[in-house]
């Protein structure tokens, strides 16, 4: 074992959480689960595997991850989502790593899956994230979506050999639903940061994202799944800016007070 705490946020992840915890157990003796009201067997599975389980109201991805960081036993944190499983190669690499510099963060490659199929091209095929860091130097941002790590100015980024296996969606229905869900969250985030839904963003950006994912990044080589992912990128981008425009119209004559913002009911 190494002096690293694994922090996982969950909600109704019984289908996969056991696999994620089993691999995390090969890394550490401290796994912190921050749960947002699971109604399936997620909590019992986590308890059975000896995790420390805490329930917290949903304050956003970054806020809930930061809560897990606060509850961790060790300063070094490996942050995972419930649908992410550390690979054997990553476990072996982490066992050899020397964690002696809090200013260093570690970038890990991801292998993403559409159902049981690994996606090797497109944006998913190029995925990597900083997920190992020291909590004395690094925290998550608290934006509504696409939380990012707030890194120190003199950060030293190192790559780690090995992979995290990300089981993103089971089928195209889930893929399209996820695009819709994140479009709504992204629109709120864009509104709060003062972004505008310009003609280019609303009509050109979706097409550009499709071309980038499907053609430039060779997503077509992943077959039907590559096409479905590229379609989802169009849907996400278009709906994000469509919802942003609608939000701006609803709040046009309303003074900007964050807690009083009106978020329109979004149609699919």
How would you characterize the overall build of this protein?
Helix 5 (172-192) runs parallel beside helix 7 and helix 6 (199-216) packs antiparallel against helix 7. The strands form two sheets. Strands 1, 2, 3, 4, 5, 6, 7, 8 and 11 form a nine-stranded mixed sheet that branches. The chain has a two-stranded antiparallel sheet with strand order 9-10. The chain has seven helices and eleven strands. The protein has helices at residues 17-24, 42-48, 61-71, 88-96, 172-192, 199-216, 223-250; strands at residues 4-10, 31-35, 52-55, 76-81, 84-86, 104-114, 117-119, 128-134, 139-140, 149-150, 156-169. Strand 2, helix 2 and strand 3 form a beta-alpha-beta unit. By secondary structure, the protein is an alpha/beta fold. Helices cover 38% and strands 24% of the residues.
């Amino acid at each position: 074992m190494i002096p690293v705490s694994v922090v996982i946020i969950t909600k109704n992840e019984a289908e996969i959480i056991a696999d994620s915890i089993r691999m995390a157990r090969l890394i550490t003796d401290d796994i912190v689960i921050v749960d947002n009201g699971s109604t399936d067997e997620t909590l019992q599975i986590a308890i059975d595997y000896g995790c420390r389980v805490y329930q917290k109201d949903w304050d956003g991805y970054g806020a809930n991850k930061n809560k897990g960081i606060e509850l961790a036993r060790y300063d070094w944190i490996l942050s995972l989502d419930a649908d992410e499983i550390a690979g054997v190669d990553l476990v072996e690499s982490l066992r050899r790593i020397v964690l002696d510099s809090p200013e260093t963060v570690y970038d890990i490659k991801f292998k993403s899956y559409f159902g049981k199929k690994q996606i090797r091209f497109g944006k998913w095929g190029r995925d990597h994230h900083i997920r190992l860091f020291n909590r004395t130097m690094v925290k998550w941002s608290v934006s509504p979506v696409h939380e990012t790590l707030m890194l120190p100015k003199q950060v030293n980024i190192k790559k780690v050999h090995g992979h995290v296996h990300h089981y993103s969606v089971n089928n195209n229905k889930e893929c399209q639903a996820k695009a819709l869900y994140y479009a709504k969250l992204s629109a709120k985030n864009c509104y709060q940061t003062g972004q505008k839904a310009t003609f280019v963003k609303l009509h050109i950006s979706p097409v550009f994202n499709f071309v980038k994912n499907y053609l430039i990044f060779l997503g077509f080589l992943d077959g039907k799944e590559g096409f479905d992912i590229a379609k989802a990128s169009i849907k996400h981008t278009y709906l994000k800016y469509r919802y942003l425009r609608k939000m701006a119209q609803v709040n046009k004559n309303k003074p900007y007070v964050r807690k009083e913002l009106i978020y329109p009911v979004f149609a699919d």
